[in-house]
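Design review, sub-item: ligand-bound model
Attendees: FS, YL, KQ
YL presented the inputs for the glutamine complex:
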Amino acid sequence: MKKVGVLSLQGDFAAHGAALERAGAEPVYVRDREQLEGIDGLILPGGESTTMLKLLRYEGLYEAIVEFGRAKPVFGTCAGAILMAKEVTHPAQESLGLMDIAIERNAYGRQIDSRVATLEPAPEFQLRTAPGTMEAVFIRAPIVRHVNGGATVLAEYQGDPVLIEQGRHLMATFHPELTADPRVHALFLEKL
Ligand code: GLN
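KQ shared the predicted structure:
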């Protein structure tokens, strides 16, 4: 069984653990550097990216995850996607820079900042997983403003990419761990 780390410093790591179990993988709740050694891939969950950054620094995990991402797949959702991006705005903050993407935080505004939408994933996503539309939960979500280099947009919402694969890495601006649809986690497991 594949072992997948879930960064568990802050945010909705428990929901990712449950989603991994549903998809047939063993979650490892990563809180220190040593735990990166035995895992095949890593998920950075949703939560609050500024807080997560501080805790990453505090635990000495920041450089360790950059290093991990040079060899193994990393999947970031929402705040985790913000940590994955090379450029972060609104406000600007440092990030792990694992994907050559520019992202704007809290980009849907304050009034209607959370919603559940129905997406039609790209044909490639449906071919690689299973056909059908997908429920997507957005919570104070970021918007991807630029995708550089070779990347595949696997789903869009209102014309913006919300699920992107670039090399070995994956990011979603929504929360696939909060719905029963296992396809996004299953796709990540295929990459390991
Ligand atoms: N708004 C959060 C941030 O900027 C992300 C929200 C989430 O992960 N649901 O980090």
